[in-house]
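Field reference: sequence -> structure
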Amino acid sequence: MIPAASTYAPRIDNLFWLLCAISGAIVLLVTVLLVWFSVKYRRGTKAKRGALPTRFTREVEISWTAATLIAFVFVFWWAAAVQTEEVPIPKHAMEIHVVAKQWMWKIEHPNGQREIDALHVPLGVPVKLVMTSQDVIHSFFVPAFRVKQDVLPGRYTELNFTPDKLGTFHLFCAEYCGTDHSEMTGGVVVMRPADFARWSEGQPEGDTLAEQGRAAFKRLGCTGCHGGSAMVRAPSLADIYGKPQPMQGGGFKTVDEEYLHDSIMQPQKDVVAGYDPVMPSYQGVATEDDVVRLIAYLKQPGGGAEK
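Structure field:
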């Protein structure tokens, strides 16, 4: 077995061994019955033969079907419980952005540090990955953590884990993504918090992700329509993240990563009520890296309040 290196891994391993035990028990039972019946009813034996009593046959079928149903419901309940335990993300989780691209993993920490095909994280600290793809479907897979999540173009997916073992653990793309798919590998480096702090301080200094997003907000001309002194009538983006927005045609949408991404790349998809659909698409103008930085800027307090 691959060593378990996250708090989530033991639960997946327990589920795996449960399924192995149930499958093994069924195989053993069927094998024993097959051998027994083959010997007992072989040609020439004096074993009683003939039609089975109708009532006996019905009771066996009902019992076998009921037992199978109960086992299925139990395994389904346990598997669903294990899977849903991974969904809640701690509020204090360390948020890291991942952009997949043929054939590499581009990783950016909140303080602006960047990595390629490597991810450094501190031991025992919950980590939240916000991931998107620049081209085709990829899949972020760390076997030692027992976690895997598809990374999709034009969408944001999230993955969280808490590493509990020091070391470097293999990172793979688990979705065929083209010619060099097998080369799209890397490593997750789990370090002691003090060592991680020293590693972080030793990286080249640069603007934080939010500061880079603020620069992109100006460079891409967003202030021309959404700034405080803009002449064009457009929704204010100041502290908009997490708030519900009324949509044309009725209903509300909460401003999250997905909504902001679509608003930048597909602005006609969801138009805020009371505004004309005049915003141009930034598809081909802004890269996925730009969008990640813009969203980081808009998520911070005061984000989007540029004049």
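Note: The mean pLDDT is 85.
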